[in-house]
Design goal:
about 230 residues, alpha/beta, 4-stranded mixed sheet, 3-stranded antiparallel sheet, 7 helices, 9 strands, about 40% helix
């Protein structure tokens, strides 16, 4: 049974759509190419790849990367080059539909002192600047947030004045922003984009968060395994 263009898996569809986002969906349909080849063979003419077919070896365009200087006393743990490395590893499967990734200044509305990143639909991901290590988070931080920080390699301990001290050894903060925060927001984007809902929220908050969390965990493991294999 032939597969409809609309039901092609994302890993197959994304590469073609990223290379040629404004072409009609059926333009690169292989069935059309096969029909053309068959007609040329019947006429005794040599077959050649269609001129309109995108090359699978051509470089992929990336979403626009924008960087704003961090606020005084804060840093961007992951810079443009780090983000490009992650995007190049995963390719069109994660960049399909993304318009921009921005390194921005935090706007001071963080909950429990944490303002990491967010998705602004359609297709705009914002990663906020962060304090240099160590972090002093006010009040009691939810257990789920603490588990997330510890899983990323942070050292968490109670601080004076009922606060929480979070220390990031080595490059753990950079990897947290790339392989947790960035991938988490890409998961939100993929859920929205795959359903064709560019602006309307398509799932309850807890379902959206569950999908993004699972996506980040799965793709972080893929990245780490691929990096280990290449070393």
């Amino acid at each position: 049974m032939s597969r409809s263009v609309h039901t092609r898996p994302r890993r197959i569809l994304s590469g073609r759509r990223v290379r040629a986002p404004y072409e009609p969906r059926g333009r690169s349909d292989l069935s059309s190419a096969h029909a053309l080849d068959r007609g040329m063979k019947e006429l005794g003419l040599p077959c050649s790849p269609p001129l309109w077919a995108p090359s699978l070896n051509s470089s992929l365009p990336f979403p626009r990367l924008r960087a704003q200087d961090p606020r005084r006393g804060r840093i961007h743990p992951a810079v443009r080059a780090d983000i490009l490395t992650v995007l190049e590893f995963f390719g069109a499967e994660v960049t399909y539909g993304l318009r921009s990734i921005e390194l921005a200044r935090s706007c001071g509305d963080a909950v429990h002192g944490l303002l990491l990143g967010r998705l602004l639909v359609p297709g705009r991901i914002v990663l906020y600047d962060q304090p240099s290590s160590p972090w002093l988070l006010p009040g009691r931080v939810p257990a789920q947030q603490l588990e997330r920080l510890e899983a990323a390699g942070a050292e968490v301990e109670p601080a004076q004045c009922s606060g929480t001290l979070v220390t990031w050894p080595g490059e753990t903060l950079k990897e947290f922003m790339l392989l947790d925060v960035l991938l988490h927001e890409i998961g939100h984007h993929i859920l929205q984009h795959h359903k064709g809902k560019r602006r309307a929220r398509i799932a309850r908050t807890r379902d959206h968060e569950a999908y993004a969390r699972t996506f980040a965990e799965r793709y972080r493991l893929r990245y780490l395994e691929g990096r280990s294999a290449s070393q």
